[in-house]
Specification:
The chain contains 4 helices and 4 strands, in the order H-E-E-H-E-H-E-H. It is an alpha+beta fold. The protein has a 4-stranded mixed sheet with strand order 1-2-4-3, sandwiched between helices. It is globular, with a radius of gyration of 15 Å.
């Protein structure tokens, strides 16, 4: 059973990690988010942990779309809660860095945000599985 906490170890917060993610990561779009993601290898410290704990997450809400900090913080809290509760949609042993960039111009309710996060996780998991599977030989 996966833990439902959101400790500091699952937060993406170093500048060099953000730059690497933005430069060489893949993207996924849906109605609410632009998700940057990059699969990462499991380090020696993370090998004993379960899969969701080795994935790291960050959330960004642009000031251009939401001028009030109260609204930006509300959207970030909703997104982090949806991530916390739905990390189990990532496959076992899959480690990646994620940046959820809020791109909708209106404040969505929690159900919409949660649906978008689940859709992003399942889509990224499918893309990662397709990339990991060996290419089929054509004769």
């Amino acid at each position: 059973m996966a833990t439902l906490s959101y400790p500091k170890s699952v937060r993406l917060h170093y500048r060099k990690d953000f730059l690497a993610l933005l430069e060489s990561g893949d993207t996924h779009y849906n109605a609410v988010f632009k998700v940057f993601w990059k699969a990462s290898r499991v380090s020696g410290a993370n090998q004993g942990q379960i899969a969701p704990a080795c994935s790291r997450f960050a959330v960004s809400v642009p000031k251009r779309s939401f001028r009030r900090a109260v609204k930006r913080n509300l959207l970030k809290r909703r997104t982090r809660e949806a991530i916390r509760l739905n990390r189990q949609f990532l496959p076992e042993g899959f480690c990646a860095d994620f940046l959820f960039f809020y791109r909708s111009t209106e404040a969505c309710d929690y159900a919409t945000v949660e649906k978008a996060v689940v859709e992003a996780f399942t889509s990224v998991a499918a893309k990662a599985a397709a990339a990991q599977s060996p290419a089929t030989e054509t004769s």
